[in-house]
Records
---
Amino acid sequence: MVGASLAGLRTVEALRRHGFEGSLTLVGDEPHLPYERPPLSKEVLTGAAEAGVTRLTSRSALEEDLAVDLRLGRSAVGLDPAAGLLRLAGRGDRAAEAETVGFDALVVATGARARQPFAEPPPGVLTLRTLDDALAVRDRLRSAENVVVVGAGFVGLEVASAARSLGLPVTVVEAARTPLSRSIGAEAASGVMALVRENGVTVHCGRTVRAFTGSPQLTGVVLDDGATLRADLAVVGVGAQPNTEWLEGSGLLLSPAGLCCAADGRADDAGRIWGVGDAVAWRRADGGGYSRHEHWTSACDQAQLVARNLLDGGRRGLTAAPYVWSDQFGQRLSIVGETDRYDEVREVPRDGGRPAVLYARDGRLVGAFVFGQQRLAMLCRRWVAAAAPVHEVPGWEQGARAVTEGAGVPADAG
Ligand SMILES: Cc1cc2nc3c(=O)[nH]c(=O)nc-3n(C[C@H](O)[C@H](O)[C@H](O)COP(=O)(O)OP(=O)(O)OC[C@H]3O[C@@H](n4cnc5c(N)ncnc54)[C@H](O)[C@@H]3O)c2cc1C
């Protein structure tokens, strides 16, 4: 198992639960035991929870209960699938510790890293992906006076929400004219941006960052129209990049979306290499290209499935609809299924709240965007998994037909 975080850990646990008694090695380049990332941009930033809440397991649970050979602080640097060999670098600068590990099967679970488009940004310009990143942002928030968030994706907006809850002025800079519309459509996106603005965040859309001012400490963010925003903390949240460079030369199929895997999780025909979580793009069940879901639930669902397929040679695919949540400005936002490939959208009104947005293709429900209303989100997950005909979905017929700018472009490998 390469990658000792959510997807790697859940695969190891599932392999043991399904009766695997052979040897298991879990390799991770971070020094930490496996931990959760969702709280990093939420309660860890605000200080409502300590870093310990993110811990997913203990060393003794891994090494004693699951009999895992745990290699933390070790990077995988090369793979030869045919020979069944994995190359590991030494810890830190200890090159002499480099070694080659043999395997019968290997699961790629190396996740993704935050994109950092700025070369050598000054101190005070941070990204957020790891526990160490979150602690650095939290420490800066304690003394910050003006916060700029670059990128209006969900992680960026959660950072904005955390900073606002601490009473700080926050400005979000977003390159797209309509933030989020590519992934969730114009209707849901405008609801999210209304929520963001109502909570006192200034948003500059259609603007990019040209430079940062201040040395050695950040004092401002210069936009492409020449305006300078005061800032002593800037958090860059412009997406994540799969950690797959170590697989180059392995002969496996790599794309910008990650390691390409079949719909049952295999990355090679022999069923020796498998992929789970944010590092990988699985072939869609309809055969139409590969999709990477950077979702907590996808990492867990894929881990369960791969453990079973790997052990019994099954070719099962995922049956649950993808689901991701985001907590911001006191609301839980839920995205279910595909919200970027649809031919019809309806807004289902709700008393005293923002409407849910339902997405359909060829007369069947394929996705939903829900503000709050956890129960509805879970029902939508069931309906989407069952590809429910829209006339059977409560609220669809009464829903206002939304005018979209055409179905979004899937963020996938092709
Ligand atoms: C700040 C933040 C907030 C989030 N909030 C939500 C949320 O609210 N809801 C939701 O559904 N999802 C959320 N997510 C997404 C969710 O956390 C991810 O989908 C999940 O972490 C994916 O797990 P993973 O194990 O595939 O990858 P990761 O968690 O990225 O773990 C991969 C591990 O592999 C290690 N690694 C990388 N390269 C190598 C190598 N060469 N050798 C050895 N080890 C390596 C990495 O350092 C890392 O430890 C959030 C993510 C972030 C960053």
---
Amino acid sequence: MTEVRTAHTADLDTATLTTVRDLLDRAFEGDLADLDWEHALGGMHALAYDAGELVGHASVVQRRVLHAGRSLRTGYVEGVGVDKDHRGRGHGVALMAALERVIRGAYDLGALSASDAARGLYGGRGWLPWQGPTFALTPLGIVRTEDEDDGVYVLPVRLPLDPFGELVCDWRDGDVW
Ligand SMILES: CC(C)(COP(=O)(O)OP(=O)(O)OC[C@H]1O[C@@H](n2cnc3c(N)ncnc32)[C@H](O)[C@@H]1OP(=O)(O)O)[C@@H](O)C(=O)NCCC(=O)NCCS
């Protein structure tokens, strides 16, 4: 049975964070860059345990997303991964349920950039693939991010969103979405 613990980055000790990073390195098969890991820090983590062993992780951090003339407080999901041997048993669902509670309670909307492997997970939970064009608010101005259009999903919470409208994420090093 999955047990999910939620905690802010500030309340996870170094050993736990190291274990999470190792888990994500395995889940992403070495494809998790240092900046990807950095993007997963500074918010609320959900940690999934099976028989006391850490088997999955996801986190939500605050970002600003511009949409329809407003700057929306956005719960942005990062670092979603479950150890290979434990997939297909509902751990991903349990992690997302824990983060969606946080998103619904604290943010105007949820957003994330989905891997192909995770589209079913998000789509089955009410996350909507964004239909409109995406952009990033870079130091050089607003830049179109067309390569990201297909992967961006949102979870509407408090505000009506125009799913065909523009979505502009705030700036950060590494992958902007
Ligand atoms: C995406 C990922 C996190 C899903 O984790 P998971 O623990 O396997 O997820 P779940 O078991 O909760 O659900 C995943 C699938 O199993 C199904 N499932 C859920 N509970 C199940 C159960 N008890 N038995 C069998 N299947 C189940 C779900 O319906 C879902 O199916 P779908 O994706 O085909 O629609 C995992 O595959 C992973 O770590 N992938 C590599 C990293 C990655 O791509 N992360 C996402 C980045 S955006």
---
Amino acid sequence: MIVSFDIGGSAIKGGIARSETDIVPLARRPTPKQDFADFVATLRAVVAEAGETPDCISFSIAGVVDPDTQALICANIPCIHGRRLAAELEAELGYPVLIANDADCFAMAEAMSGAGRGHRIVFGAILGTGVGGGLVADGRLVNAAGGFAGEWGHGPIIASFAGNPPAAIPAYPCGCGQKGCVDTVGGARGLERLHKTLHDRELSSEEIIGHWLAGDAEAERTIDVMVDLVASPLALTVNITGATIVPVGGGLSNVEPLLARLDMAVRSRILRKFDRPLVVPSECKIEPGLIGAALLGLKFAGERGHAA
Ligand SMILES: [Zn+2]
């Protein structure tokens, strides 16, 4: 048995996993953000609720483990940011601890029990507030020990002109320290930023999507530019990884006409030609972080020879 966690900025969700198809969620608890002792106590309470000693515990976290230092980069939860969290929790709790990025857990969940089932190489893309991604090959997460693989959202790569006719797009500064990242234009925040640049109007991403679906010309222009900017780096990602399916999660993935448009644009820009959708909505709509972390934990425990 393993206990998996989805650690978010507001809530900690736990679950008990006995097999890939037997994952039971537990009660959610508020995330202690400032006090590490409270954070550990909350984890203990979740494990106690599970009622038995787990073979390991596994985490989905909106952060990245630095593969060189094992330090967690997680700016929105200060009490765990910068810590060698796996080692510290192993010392506190006494069983193995696995930590994975939430986009990686999403990719794992989609590969094993979502839209990626039956595909050898699955690239899971997040179009949420920002842009993220994870890569699963032959059922294994390419990043299981932490690291930055799959992060197609960062790097100075977006085009200077986009849309038809082309509009000049500034290299917006990104939280990662670079300029011109896909993250600055590809998620909900990016949509709002592009709309402001193109039309000098501040609307929420929901408003822009709503206007677009109602046939508004300004919103159509924004969507056209956004799809143009995002499709090229995603097509490059598909060429590099050889992914044969790209499940998309995050808030914008719920806008099916937007995904359909992105899918057509990506398929027209990749080398391999597919006569079926490649960029598709995710299927694990409920708790992909929890499920992905559970799958990683089960795999880890199984490989250590425990009866998971
Ligand atoms: Zn960036």
